[in-house]
Amino acid sequence: MLGEVAGVRPPGGRAAEAARLVCEEYAGPALYHHSVRSYCFGAAWAEERGLDFDRELFFVSALLHDLALVAPFDSHTLPFEEAGGHLARVFTAGLGWPTRRRDRAAELIVLHMRDDVAPEVDVESRMLQVGTSADVSGSGLDAFAPSFRDALVAAYPRLDFARSFVRLFQEQAARKPGCAAARLLAGEWAGRAASHPLDRT
């Protein structure tokens, strides 16, 4: 079970621990650390703004959101975020979550690669967008205190995350040229990811 990181606590319980174990086992160290950092960034952002959110739902979705990038769960037809949504629905069915809650986990994962969602419309989806953007490309990173960022990276180092993550997106784009990953690669996203400020500290 994870402990508190930089003032952000993870949820307790069977669902959170199962998601953590699955992510740690399948994602590899760099992607696992990214998933935890994404949770922490998103949760810290919401807490700073006094937003109420479902901590368990958000944690499970954050820990599962990139698993469809890795070989055991990769789809050669579906964009990784859509495949990841299906994975989340299957995973949470095993936990006994009701259909609506399973749908929500899938929705968060799909929407993290879509246009920004307003927090008053869907706070957890916006949190995952904030968390992943801050950690992958540095977008919105200035909203977080340097002390928070330093503590987070000390607890979950970035390792070779930027290079390996860009490569995963390149593999997705080569096989699924119409996917969101391909659209990001067509712009300046890869350069921003490769020059992430947290990799220069």
Automatic annotation (TrEMBL):
SMART domains: HDc. It comes from the Bacteria. Residues 27-103 form the HD/PDEase domain. InterPro entries: HD/PDEase_dom, HD_domain. Pfam families: HD. PANTHER family: CYANAMIDE HYDRATASE DDI2-RELATED (PTHR35569:SF1). This is Cyanamide hydratase. It comes from Streptomyces longispororuber.
